[in-house]
Amino acid sequence: MALDKPYKDIPGTTIFDAEQSRKGYHLNQFCMSLMKAENRERFKANQRAYLDEWPMSEEQKQAVLDMDLNRAMALGGNIYFLAKIGATHGLSFQQMAGSMTGLSEDAYRDMMIKGGRSVEGNRYIGEDGDAQAQHQPQGQTVAKVGA
What we know:
This protein is mainly alpha-helical. It has a domain at 15-90 and 140-146: Dioxygenase LigAB, LigA subunit (Protocatechuate 4,5-dioxygenase, Chain A, Orthogonal Bundle), CATH 1.10.700.10. Helices cover 54% and strands 0% of the residues. It is built from 10 helices and no strands. Helix 2 (25-33) runs parallel beside helix 7 and helix 8 crosses helix 9.
């Protein structure tokens, strides 16, 4: 029996629940492997070869290669684990979050200092606020994956 998930109607938000955890298990384990310097070096030397050692879906591997964090989250990635990929590439969490919203690091920081995105137009999927999929850099992909 499937659980009711009313939170699936929150635009721009991926909730990391038990279903996402199962879907992203190997993706997240790959990310955690990057905590070891030797694994980071192997990954940076040949990303595809290192990814192919993990039983992830091709779509998950491609999301990593593309640094498409929104898609990786939709495919089960936990943002705190995915941050290890960004760190491996020398990116701050703020830079990563900015890329996920289509904003520069400075624009993202300024938006957050001002209190974040407005709830206007962003209360549920189908409105026309700035957190809606159609206004996100990978929005259409995320909308398809999350459906």
